[in-house]
Structures are given as C-alpha cells and as structure tokens.
Amino acid sequence: MRTPLVLHAERLTKRYGRRTALTDCDLKIPRGRVVGLVGPNGAGKSTLLQLACGLIAPTSGTLSVLGSRPAANAAHLARVGFVAQDTPVYASFSVADHLKMGAWLNPSWDAALAKRRIAEVGLDPAQKAGRLSGGQRAQLAMAIAAAKRPELLIFDEPAAALDPLARKGFMRSLVEFVGELGASAVLSSHLLSDVEQVCDYLVVLCDSRIQVAGPVPDLLASHHRIVGDPARTPAGVEVIWAEHGHTVVRGEAAAPDRTAAPDTEPVTLEELVLAYMSRAAGTVAASRGDAAVSR
C-alpha cells in the first residue's frame, strides 16, 4: 500500500560535533508534489536531503521516506533518485558507460528512457563525461537518476553553477521527468526563480529549523503585506517581519479588508520567503546579543 507521505520528519535533529545543522524539525510532505526547499547557505538544506537519501544518520528524532527508514534496503534505494550539487559523473567514463553502469546497478532501469533523454538533450554516447559542459553533466546525472524510475527525485542545488540557459533547460527536463514518471520531487535551491518556475510546495529552512511549509497557493493566500504603520496590523494575526513600513503577516484576519486595513496587499513568493528568513536571522542576532550581555 502506497503511503500518502513522501517524507515525514518528527523532531529531526542532526549535529556535527558542536555544530547543529538541524534542530527538532517536524515536516510532512505529501506525495505528488514538486517541493522547493529554500533557505540561506548553511541553513541545513543539504543535511536534510542527505538524511533523506540515507547518506548520513540523524542524531535524534525520526525520518521516514516513502514510508520506510531512508536507504532501508536495496529495494528502497531503487525508489529514490538523487542528484547532488556537483552533479557527480565519472570523468573518464563515456556517456554510454554511465548508462551501462546505471543498468548494472538498478534492477528497475529503463534503458529506453535513458537513451531517449540522452538523445533529446543532444549528448553524444561516445563523449567522455570529463569533456561535457556543466549543463550537459547535469542533464546526464538527471537522466541516470530518472532512468531508475524512482518514486522520489531529490535535487540538491543541481543547477547552482549553471548559466541561465543551461539552468532553464535543466528545469524544463526536471518537470518533464516528474510528469513522465509520476514521481514526487524535492528541489533545494537558493534561486527563488527556480522554485517559482517548477515547485507547487514550499519549505523554508533557516537557522537549522523549518520556518514554514505548505502548498504554495495556500501560503500565498494566508500571508499578506501591510503598508504603513505596523501599529495598524489587524488583531489576531501573526507578524512575520516588519521593515521599512512594510509588515508581512499570517492569519485569517490578514485577508484584505479595505475598511479595516486599506493598505493590505498580497505578498509575492519572494516577499514571503524573505520575511521568514529575516525573522530567523533577527532571532539569531538577538539571541547572540543576549548571550554577549550575559557574559
């Protein structure tokens, strides 16, 4: 029986020595979503994705992926495709060699899909991977991940180093693969344009904690921006961030009401994300200031 959740974390924590990468993270991501995981560098995005792939183990808390412990066995590994930030390929291997290796390692390998996608993006099977451009390597890595026919595709900022044209092609291929496979996907990116282009579910991760998560339309509908004096903020709403005469709020009472708050406006996805990132950064700065005073 297929579990309705592609990823389920409860109080998930990961520490590296004295540094905490994730703190008490609770997260439920339903199937069938293309999830945008956003946050500043060092927020814990890569750690969360590596935990989901079973590359590292949590310090405490629980995490299930597709209803099982990450990388529980070979069968579970085959259900997850992963493309890392540096889109790793073997420089001395040809494109065809990569496909042969993929077929050898994955019992559910779809050779026809792999060959078709390689041809569609113009890769020469005889070309050595070390001579491919960054965009071509990314396309090769994604084709290999997708040819496993996984239920979940995980991308850890795979387009970060690509030029705009190559990134556009990569994102187009991502959407095509997700649709063809009927898979779920999680895309970590610091480029909100990528998230707006392909994602229908958003997770904001800052300061090692989940700040907000949910379907993009629902988040945009439940957040608004109030222009002017923050004192005019309607009662019963949560203030996310206020700066330079603009206040981002969340809550039912935040819905536009021209009589109570004539300057209430919808937020963009960028404004929403930046509000949560700014709040997290402000909380960290305040806690460090308190610590300095206490010393």
From TrEMBL:
SUPFAM superfamilies associated with the record: P-loop containing nucleoside triphosphate hydrolases
SMART domains registered for this protein in UniProt: AAA
ABC transporter domain sequence ranges: 7-232
The UniProt record lists the keyword ATP-binding: yes
A GO MF term: ATP hydrolysis activity
UniProt xrefs under Pfam families: ABC_tran
InterPro entries cross-referenced by the UniProt entry: AAA+_ATPase, ABC_transporter-like_ATP-bd, P-loop_NTPase
Entry keywords, A to Z: ATP-binding, Nucleotide-binding, Transport
Family per similarity comment: Belongs to the ABC transporter superfamily.
Protein name as annotated: ABC-2 type transport system ATP-binding protein
Organism: Micromonospora pisi
Upper lineage: Bacteria, Bacillati, Actinomycetota, Actinomycetes, Micromonosporales
